[in-house]
């Protein structure tokens, strides 16, 4: 029997890579549901190619154009943000690939965990803001959370060499992004094009900007806290510009276990789909002799202030990670709209964290209120100041 997969966010970078992996794994894997937000044409092309039973479009205004373009499509067409929750809980789905960007993916990730699915999670923001709710829902309902993020996939693989209490440190690697060697003042005034020019990974725009600020690594530290049930104090970050060693686990006996591979998301995507098996993949293998050398250095936390803030936030639970993430989402959108300078992304996040009164153990409703407050606070800051200067 083939494994039935729902891809939430199939039109994004992770979504398209997942489709390529599943095509190569056919007939053992089959796509039964796809979702997009704005890219109706790409969704139609994907649906025509793999004939799923369900397609969903989350931006309401795109429903009629999608319906018209799908023509004689025989499956069901769903619309609106809640349609992702319906796809995540479908009886016929075995694996839900969470590849939506941002906190918008939270309700569906939670629904997949509550429905006891195998949840292959690329969408890190829900884990950052609702790690406690998500991991509890997975545990209580027999769901399996499997990381797609390359660093967490690497840690997950390395963890199989020991037990959690034998871990001394988890070490997440980071490319350092395009501004690793750029003077701080120059980085703070970087253009959108410069910030989107990632040296090693080809990804969606939001995560590419997060990589340039190193906010991505800050979010990943919090993601690792929840995925591996480890205190933040046991998680380190090491800059590794070649993006070949995807992360490592340092065990108490002095052994460090790392996972290596080319910087290609098809590798961790496939591992999450086929776990615990490994099968022949379509990604290029690694030829270490072609690389010659691999480099590692500690990150400069005065240069990458988002990472410094992230280490502090990761030591807390409750509302601070929600503010941290929501302020970043709003600030990155403002940067990509040309409304603020690059350096103001982290200033706005810091401002929101300072202005916020922390709360512990949030319900989903309380969490969404905090999320909305932080986004509003960023917008208020933008209207109060002439921010580009
Ligand atoms: N890209 C990578 O290599 C990579 C690596 C590790 C982790 N991740 C994580 O994986 C997630 C996806 O990243 P990505 O790079 O694939 O992003 P992306 O290319 O921007 O794709 C995002 C996907 O989410 C959909 N979407 C956007 N806004 C939405 C909303 N409000 N509601 C529902 N769907 C929405 C998009 O639909 P439309 O395109 O149709 O608008 C698209 O299908 C992120 O959380 C990221 O941090 C990505």
Instruction: State the strand order across the main sheet.
Output: 4-3-2-1-5-6-7
Mean of residue pLDDT values: 96
What are the secondary-structure elements, in order, as H or E?
EHEHEHEHEHEHEHEHHHHEEEHHHHHH
By DSSP, the count of extended strands is: 11
Rg of Cα set:
20 Å
The parts where pLDDT drops under 50 for at least 5 residues are none
Given the helix and strand composition, which structural class is it?
alpha/beta
The tally of structural domains comes to 3
Bound molecules: NADP nicotinamide-adenine-dinucleotide phosphate
Beta strand %: 15-25%
In DSSP terms, counting alpha (H) and pi (I) runs of 4 or more, how many helices?
17
Question: What is the distance, rounded to the nearest whole angstrom, between the alpha carbons of the first and last residues?
Answer: 60 Å
Shape: globular
Helix content: 40-55%
Major β-sheet profile? 7 strands, parallel
